[in-house]
Amino acid sequence: MTLGFIHSFETFGSVDGPGVRFVVFMQGCPLRCLYCHNPDTWKTSAGTSYESSDVVRRALRYRSYWGEDGGLTVSGGEPLLQIDFVTDLFKELKKEGVHTCIDTSGATFRSHAQYLKKFDTLMEYTDLVLLDLKQIVSEKHKKLTSVPNEHILDCARHLDDIHKEMWIRHVLLPSYTDNEADLRGLRAFIDTLSSVKKVEVLPYHTLGIHKYESLHLDYALKDIEPPSVQSLTFAKEILEFQKP
User: Fold this and answer.
1) In whole angstroms, what is the distance from residue 141 CA to residue 150 CA?
2) Sequence-separated (6 or more) residues with CB below 8 Å from residue 124
3) Shortest CA distance to 19 belongs to which of 49, 54, 64?
4) pTM of the model
């Protein structure tokens, strides 16, 4: 049995996929996004270990609240760092008829055969992927997250190739992700993906600053304010859509 290292749970998530969700926040992330509001999930050597059956039992206690659209979402951190555990978890959830969703940056994705075999096995038990596309320009993506984005765009293309339903998320961060040309470039890329059912623009917020202080970490964006209503509306006009 593969153990999963988990940071925390949320029992009534409303912004992590369709309906009401039980959200599992996995421990560990290879990115260092400047706006990350969960820096306490970065370390892979932390968290509490669980067997997948323990998580299933915990989640099913709340099933009566999910309705027809809800289910379980695995988020992070970066859940694909623990792909074997998430696969085991989703296999058990599908036996119970639970809708499964993974919220990922795609940062661990690689195109070699060994990785794709594991990735595609996980996708067999995954109903929906929430894919965070943070910045379409690779150099700017590296400045924002510490890594380039070519393999992340490859992840989006592969998900489209296997016809896996996706929702795309984009955090609007003033001076970093709100450039009009970049937004239109991102929309042009998304338009090449037929399995994208929804695009969401999420405004940058400062709610995680206290975590940096408690962890004695420097917060690089302390002088950046959340986007204006006008900027957010403009970005949504370019990017957002929803298909039935």
Assistant:
1) 10
2) none
3) 64
4) 0.95
β-bridge partners, 50 = 4
101: left (phi over 0), alpha (psi -120 to 50) or beta: beta
What domains can be seen in the chain, in order of their start residue?
Answer: 3-242 (3.20.20.70)
Cβ–Cβ < 8 Å for 43, 59: no
DSSP per-residue codes, 85-142: HHHHHHHHHHHTT--EEEEE--TT---SHHHHHHHHHHHHT-SEEEEE---SSHHHHH
> What is the CA 209 to chain-centroid distance, rounded?
20
Residues 218/185, Cβ–Cβ less than 8 Å: no
The pLDDT tens digits for 218-233 are 998 988 999 999 999 9
83-118: b (≥16 Cβ within 10 Å) or e? bebbbbbbbbbeeeebbbbbbbbbbbbeeeeeeeee
